[in-house]
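Recap quiz, item 2
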Amino acid sequence: MSRVARPESLAKRWAGRGPERQLLFWVLVAMTLGFLMLLGAGPKEGYAVRWADLVPLAGLALSFGVAHLLLTLLGFRGDQVLLPVAAFLCGIGLLGQFRMGAFSGNQASLLDVLILPGGVALMLCATLLLMNGRYRLLAPPLWFWALLSVALVALLLVTGQRFRGGVYAAGYVTPTEPLKLTVVLFAAAFIAQHAKALAQWSKPIPFPPLRPLWPLLAFAAVLLGLLLVQRDLGMALILSLTLLALLAAGTGHLGYPIYGALGATLGGWALLSVFSHGQRRVETWLDPFQDPTGAGWQVLQGLSGMYAGGLWGEGFGQARPQYTPIAESDFIYAVIAEELGFAGSALVLVFFVLLIGRLDGIAARARSPFGALVATGIATVLAVQTLLNVGGVTKSIPLTGITLPFISHGGSSLITVFVGLGLALAISDGEPRAGRRQSGRKQSERRPGTGRKGSVSRGSRSKEAAVNNRTSNRSTSRGPRQPAVRKSSDRRTRD
Amino acid sequence: MELLNALFVSAPWATLRGGLHIAFLLVALYVLKQVYDLRAALGLRHLARPRAGFRFAVAGVALLFLAVLGYQASWQLSGTARPAFVAFMQLHDRRQFNPAHWIERGSILDHRGEVLAESRAGPTTDGQRLEVRRVYPHGPACAHVLGYTHPRFGTSGMEAAANVSLNGGSPETLLDWGELTRQLVTRDKRARGHDLVLNLDADLQQLAYERLRGRAGAVVMLRPADGAVRVLASSPSFDPNRVDAGLFRGTDPDARLLNRAVDGLYPPGSVFKVVLAAAALDAGLDPVLDCPAEGFTTSRRYPRIRDHDYYAARRAGRTWGGHGRIGLDRALIDSSNVYFAQLGVQLGHEAFHRAGDRFLFNHRIALTEGLSRSQFMRTARIEPIATSDRYGLAQAAIGQGKVLVTPAQMALIAAAVANDGVAMRPRLTTGEPAATLGRFMSDATARRLSGMMRRVVSEGTGRGIDTPELAIAGKTGTAQNPFGASHSWFIGFAPASSGQAAAGLAVAVLVEQGGYGSTTAAPIARDLLLRAQQRGLLP
């Protein structure tokens, strides 16, 4: 198996993660500049800067520094880009929230300060617990994830309270946030298990195989139904798109996204005719000037801020994003676009694309189909969530009331995203070293990625081979490699 | 920390902050560059070879982000191209640094440069900030043409049609894009929108409105040669400086928002005889007809169409002998209903409707072009007359029944007569080139008609307005109105001498329920033409 051994010596481990260190360093330099800019605006408005104002920045530096050191010490082999990118996005988020007054004065609660380090700590926990291939242990209890998902929504339904059109549990925690992970875990495990059957569409008229599909359909129906009862359209949209992406990635059958898109269009149409709340949002989206001081106010204020920001922005602390309602959570992107200008907001989106690209890269390279699907799921959730938020704020699509990952103010969202990131990091660490492998040439053609249109299922067939063909010091990924022989012991480690 | 605070309030901090801003963006870019540079070291080679397909997924996501960014740019960078957005920001955005506040909306000027609408900056009532107010020095007189800009009610008229250009305009040429780029990069706020110059004459417009004041009506004046609109007045009007909600209630009995000059459809009465005369002459019809006092009808079942002189004599207790056998000239000069009713029937349905097409009836004509939106004038509405309905045709021939026209269309027809039969598109702004709408009648017909119309004023129904200073040609009209007293019409042009008429002015005056055209509408037209002469607008 793993021909890349975990680096043994500390020096090698230190050197191995040099790129991550370098990237993190420069990200922190950028954030320090940003904070300086931001703090500089304080005295002008009669607010003297105190040492305590540096706490968020220190928290950012410390948590990511510690995370990096810990991963280095333990010889983590996985991705080196995710951490710096997350640090950048979190830093932007901190700047944005600091700017909106989240940490100012005496109202700064301990919780606000601790959420970021807490999230990073949870991410580390997830990574360390699940690295070295242990993440596969999450696959067998798939029905536990399904039950947990339904239970979370049901819990919210029972205890929830309404606020700004959504349902929240006590303390404005959103217990549906973890759904993004539990649903991904369940669906990934289920699809990985039934990939072959799910790819068998009926021939003359393409129709999905209902027999293996129905448990997933039933689960989706119950979950989405419950979410719709709470009018959480945004979450329902994220989850259904993620399910479709997982089905497509897991089976390699394009029928799923195509049928899914049709179904979503019909379903969306039907839903909009039922939910006046959604209908209003669509109307506002189509013509915000219909009711500029009412329904269109928020998005138009956000856009006004952006227009005022122009190409370069006024600089952190210089603009007046507080004129946009709820700017610190859903409309944080408008704040960034106002203060850093179009250039700054484009930069942030580039970082998001980088993040999603890296996650997809992990999915493409993960040896186990389950791992690949989980990474795909996390990437999809982040992509959809970001697109829905940014699209809504820029009026590209109707507002859905979804937070921007890493950046929006909101503990539940941040923690979930971090745990997801930890999971992806763990998957990127690869499989445990198993020394007893021999190699054989037979299966070399069936390695994932050498096939045609890659799907995880094809990968799954050759997974045993794939697991074994890690080469220790391959200089290029395309070099010749040593195919491995199927091992029964390998089977057991799989889902 | 004190050091830091001191730095933040020190003078060079502003420059330093700008530097920090740039440095921040550069460092972020540098991180991306490093990710690219280090891509070999960052590759996850210890994992399997990548499956295909995922690259496409990432590319798809990246494309979606790009699309969102592109759309964002259409608001953030070229927001001036969205007039409603700029208006929203000017009204509702409290960010003082928002460039929208500093767009000084362009002024609207008349053809001599007199201000019709302008933006003036002044402090708000609370004195907190500057506010830009739109001022219309001529108030209600120009309200229908200019329209209004109002926080709640939006924009209308030219303010709406030229909104984009007034606010600075959307980039159209390469030069505009260059200018926009320069403003974006240098953060230079666009100081002022483009001015808009109208062909209107503020003085004549004001006079027209004053002469109409108190009555419902409309006045349109055009230059026949190029269609420049000198007057487009409609009454009753509203004050665009003080737009109130009452204006928009459908129950406003005066219909103050209605621009009667371009949207009001009225029975034309006798002024329509000009159209019929042109159609007949073009069709080669120039008969001498018997016009007895007892009038004309197509069937005994219908009331007889009689001449105005018959009713006047009867009211005076006298009897009138009728016109006897007269030709087209005399019939037009004396405005003989009996003659024209018979002429219409002789002309026939087909030729009548063909003439209607030629005169662009049942059309909308753009008064502005090259702006983001257009203002339109309606021409006329003529419902098809069944071939069996000869009485309907006779009625239509004298401008009653199924014929409804706008004052603007009647001015256009008068202008066509003055311009040797060719109608030029009415143009509100000086920026658009003159364009031909079409030929309404032949050259010869126009000249003949022109002479006849001159005689209407010198010896016919319009002789009340004949003045030695100016040779006015025209036609009066008293249109029976099923809802009350007759509408008073006058169409004409001056000077009537051939060769100069095209460079003069054509006019149409309508006064709702004003009674006789010769006593109500015609003097207004005369006063306007005389004033135009004083102002040097006539050759």
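Chain B touches chain A through 71 residues (CB under 8 Å).
The longest strand of chain B covers residues 484-494.
End of item.
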